[in-house]
From TrEMBL:
Stretches the record annotates as Disordered: 1-23
Biased composition (Acidic residues): 1-17
Protein name, entry field: F-box domain-containing protein
Origin organism lineage: Eukaryota, Viridiplantae, Streptophyta, Embryophyta, Tracheophyta
Organism whose genome encodes this protein: Triticum aestivum (Wheat)
PANTHER family named among the record's database cross-references: F-BOX AND LEUCINE-RICH REPEAT PROTEIN 6, F-BOX DOMAIN CONTAINING PROTEIN, EXPRESSED
Top-rank taxon, per record: Eukaryota
Name of the gene encoding the protein in the UniProt record: LOC123188571
InterPro entries reported in the protein's UniProt record: F-box-like_dom_sf, Leu-rich_rpt_Cys-con_subtyp, LRR_dom_sf
Length: 351
């Protein structure tokens, strides 16, 4: 009803409520600020493919790509998938890793991926420039040569390194080798957390160099697949890869103890270290607060107690669990084992 002689205002057309916004008028700065509130999936698969202007706005802020964390997506599946161990899937992960390193422009701080290749990892760590984006620096010098001046042109490629990378997780990456890890060690000196679980081509040599080059490393995860009974992995992980399980657990333990004295968390699930390796860790890594030895079948309860007594800061100790019923491993392939008494105890473990 009109009041004071004024006519009723026409109602706003449906769909033009207060919640509607015209994003086309937003400046690149405003768009980049809005994108900073998006999750990785929304940014990569929603905003950036939308249009050229949005993609340019996202690229204008390298901090948007400072973290590449694919771990939540992997964990959402709940278990390994056979597709993840194919070359095609590795190429997809590599493409994302290379793109993130390029867009971050030297500000890459967190990388959590799986099934990447060694070349892609080295490229992300070292930020090797591609032909299309390398910056060619031309320097022209005039050098006296008798009565004439000789013009000398020096061309140098200027690459962007990633010294900001502090967290690196590359679980289940069979193509990552010692060579690529040496690149990581030389280019990422401020690493504080490293997860190389299920990377069977990475040896104790990499652990030595990483420890020497990254003095601030406080978290190391170096687990291997359950070698006591691999039936839970046979449908997904290639059989030849399971058979290539690292055997030099003590050598790796000694490398850790000698080069990583500041470690606070160490995860070695199913590692093949013996009491010799464990004692070395207890002597060299005095600051350990968390030690996970689940599935380490070559250890004895007495050896574990002795090592734990030397770790004064130890808060959490996960023992190998000498009492592991077969049904705990979800062995569908050997379902008849579930008929056994749950108190069944394998003699593989030593007490």
């Amino acid at each position: 009803m009109a009041t004071g002689g004024e006519a009723d205002e026409p109602a706003a057309p449906e769909g033009e409520g207060e919640g509607e916004r015209d994003w086309a008028d937003l400046t690149p700065v405003c768009l980049a600020e809005a994108f900073s509130r998006l999750g990785p999936e929304d940014l990569w698969r929603g905003a950036m493919p939308c249009c050229r202007a949005w993609r340019a706005a996202a690229r204008s802020r390298p901090a948007l790509f400072a973290a590449l964390d694919l771990e939540p997506a992997f964990e959402a599946v709940g278990a390994d998938a056979a597709e993840w161990w194919t070359p095609a899937f590795q190429r997809r992960v590599d493409a994302m890793l290379r793109s993130a390193a390029s867009l971050a422009a030297g500000e890459l701080r967190v990388v959590r991926v799986r099934h990447c290749s060694g070349d892609a990892l080295a490229s992300a760590a070292k930020r090797i420039p591609l032909w299309s984006e390398a910056r060619l620096k031309i320097q022209t010098r005039l050098i006296p040569c008798g009565r004439m001046l000789r013009v000398t042109t020096l061309a140098t490629w200027k690459g962007n390194y990633s010294p900001q990378l502090s967290i690196l997780s590359i679980q289940s990456s069979p193509s990552v080798t010692d060579r690529s890890m040496l690149t990581v060690a030389s280019c990422c000196p401020i690493l504080t957390e490293l997860d190389i679980s299920y990377c069977y081509e990475v040896s104790y040599k990499s652990l030595e160099v990483i420890g020497q080059s990254c003095p601030n490393l406080v978290v190391l995860k170096r687990s291997i697949f359950n070698w006591l009974d691999s039936s839970e992995h046979v449908r997904t992980v290639p059989a030849e890869y399971l058979r290539a399980c690292p055997q030099d657990g003590d050598r790796e333990a000694i490398a850790i103890s000698r080069s990583m004295p500041k470690l606070k968390q160490l995860v070695l699930k199913f590692a093949k270290l013996s009491g010799v390796g464990l004692n070395s860790i207890a002597e060299g890594c005095k600051e350990l607060e968390v030690l996970d030895l689940f599935g380490c079948a070559n250890l004895t309860s007495r050896g574990i107690e002795q090592a734990a007594a030397n770790l004064k800061n130890l808060e959490t100790l996960v023992k190998p669990n000498f009492y592991i019923p077969r049904s705990a491993f979800h062995m569908e392939r050997y379902g008849h084992w579930q008929l056994y008494d749950e108190r069944f105890q394998t003699n593989v473990f030593q007490i």
